[in-house]
Amino acid sequence: MSAFAKLKALDFYRKIPRDLTEASFSGASLSIVAATTMIFLFVAELNSFLKVSTTTQVIVDQSQNGELLRINFNFSFPALSCEFASVDVTDVLGTARYNLSKTVRKFPIDAAGNWVGPEHHPDPLPMPEKHGEDSNETTEEVHQKMAEDGHEYVGSLVLNKDNFEHFAHEYQILVVNFFAPWCPWCQRLEPAWEKAATVLNRKYHPDYDGRIRFAKIDCTIYQDVCRDNHIQGFPSIRIFRKGMDLRTHGEHGEHDHESYYGERDAESLVAFAESLVPSATVGRPTAAEDSHSHVKRRAPASGGCNIEGFVLVKKVPGNLMITAHSTAHSFDASTMNMTHTIHRFSFGRQLTRRKQELVARLRPYVPTPVGRLESHSFHSNHDNVTHEHFMQIVLTEVHPLGVSRKDSSLHSYDYTAHSHTLQSPNVPVSRFHYELSPMQVLIVETRRPFFHFITNLCAIIGGVFTVAGIIDGMFHNALSMIKKVELGKQF
Prior knowledge:
7-stranded mixed sheet, rod-shaped, alpha+beta
């Protein structure tokens, strides 16, 4: 018992018999106030413990070496044909990729931006190897030689604005060369074209056999005719059947221009023309009937193009460019119109559903990836206008609470954009110059440890209880002194 008695001597909380204590109205009032205060502070502390806080830092970009950046886009170019529209990427490291098609889709559109056909074929235009360059003869020399050989109809039919429709309907098949005299490809094609036309005139006499004939029209003089036929690159060889160069394909009867992309020497042109003659008696072929041809392909039925998709680029300053490109055509810079509307332009990969939920929760802290350029149109009000957009990109990385940083880091890209136009003698382009900031924003979600909550809770309860006890003691002593003074006055 002596050991137990010694242990009791260590009691910090010795009990006073209740009959030795005295309750007071002031003490009861102070106890109610103290209890209310402790409950309020407890609820506030619990809410603070359960609340998730964020810390924001600006640090050097932590991107790994070789990491790629995804650029998502959707543009509409009402005056750039899908036939020649090219998506190119270059950067300061010397990377240059042209006419990207694997992750890019093109759809013909009209001037109002409405789709007018199915997706345009992504394959690059074939590069003719023969251009009639083996002969140094001029067109006049070819005509003279053919006339000396006894050819009645020499050369191709020269079209103009007034007779274009007439001759297009007169012949069952009219193969038209839309050319520009300044175009080097047109200059190389002309002798071969005239020679082939003369050979066909002799075999299929224009007066007695109107199945096929070659013709040409100068697009620098008759710009309206070429514009109506959506000609943007020279030379463009179109096949008209009874006045129409459209052919039907697909389940819904879509139409495309019928164009020639084969070799450009006289022998190849004649062979191609003769392959068309049988179809002149059976009507216009569909795309399914001649899809095996390597020289005859469909061209978009309209002069506009909607380009959408994405590209992966290195995280270094670079350019995404939309331009007209062909290895066998020339373009008149003064007639190229790069007016465009940006429907979507953003950086980064599409978020998973789980990450989208995190974004919804972290919306006040994560910048919304709304493009500064989206839903904006940029017009070319003059000739030779190039549009340039300069973008500064900032990466925001978020580490959500309770989720592995390695597996579920959330990356969001925001950017500022400045646009302007310039005039140059080169073929106009739409250039999107991007540059990433060397700094990134790091947002980390944190929650207070549980032991902090317990420590603060004990401090609140103990502190309020102690302070209330001190106040009660001071008040009780003050009342006792007042009573003693009053009793002393009565004696």
